[in-house]
């Protein structure tokens, strides 16, 4: 396993961690100043802005763009809505390409309002990802399916385990030397899974681990979406998970991604970045 102490250049900050408190330019500079190697940006920070200028600012700061977040939900009640999401995702991929993003994170969605048909949602996800993969290859951006914890199965993602995400990737892309379809392995979403060791190894053999996110599971968790913990404040054995991920040949960024409305998003960005740096080196 790689040594993170003294090696923040191996680490990335997902800008959601900072609660979008600063304009994107200041966010870039704060992350670079602290010595991190990369960042991941969100569409809300980039859309409508001068994307080329943002990309230049990032590379001038010595940072990489680990990923671009995230897809519009795929499952839909009507063909028109399904197509609209596809077009939206194609546009986001175009932006990801301009940013030079390592991958486009796919949070795939689940039941459209009014539907109880989870099976149909999963079929639509497979169809939608199949279509989107053409555009992803055309613009040169890899797709990272992010399985989400089952507590999000109703609304945010009908992909809930690493195994399920890998099954879809295998079904769509087959066994290829250099895959365009992979997974974002987020400790917060997969830490509980008894199949995590075998499925992480499988993902590694298929060269499909495109991203590794860290945060912590607080006990108790008071909000399902926005109460993630700082690494070291919860119950996830982050070192054990990173050991598995790196034993599976992952050599990309270790990325902090913390949604924390009541705590970290209220703190000054510089303070949060300092604690991220400390905990990455100590607890991950
Ligand atoms: Zn994540």
Properties at a glance:
10 helices, 13% strand, 284 residues, binds zinc ion, eight-stranded parallel beta barrel, alpha/beta, 8 strands
Helix and strand topology:
Elements: E1 11-14, H1 24-33, E2 38-42, H2 43-46, H3 51-60, E3 64-69, H4 79-99, E4 103-106, H5 118-139, E5 142-145, H6 162-173, E6 181-186, H7 187-190, H8 196-205, E7 209-214, H9 238-247, E8 254-256, H10 269-283
Parallel strand pairs: 1-2, 1-8, 2-3, 3-4, 4-5, 5-6, 6-7, 7-8
Helix pairs in contact: 4-5, 8-9
Bound molecules: zinc ion.
In short:
The protein has 284 residues and is α/β, with parallel strands linked by helices. Zinc ion binds next to strand 6.
Describe the structure.
By secondary structure, this protein is an alpha/beta fold. It has 10 helices and 8 strands. An 8-stranded parallel β-barrel has the order 1-2-3-4-5-6-7-8, surrounded by 7 helices. Helix 4 packs parallel to helix 5 and helix 8 packs parallel to helix 9. The model has no long low-confidence stretch (mean pLDDT 98). Bound molecules: zinc ion. Zinc ion binds next to strand 6.
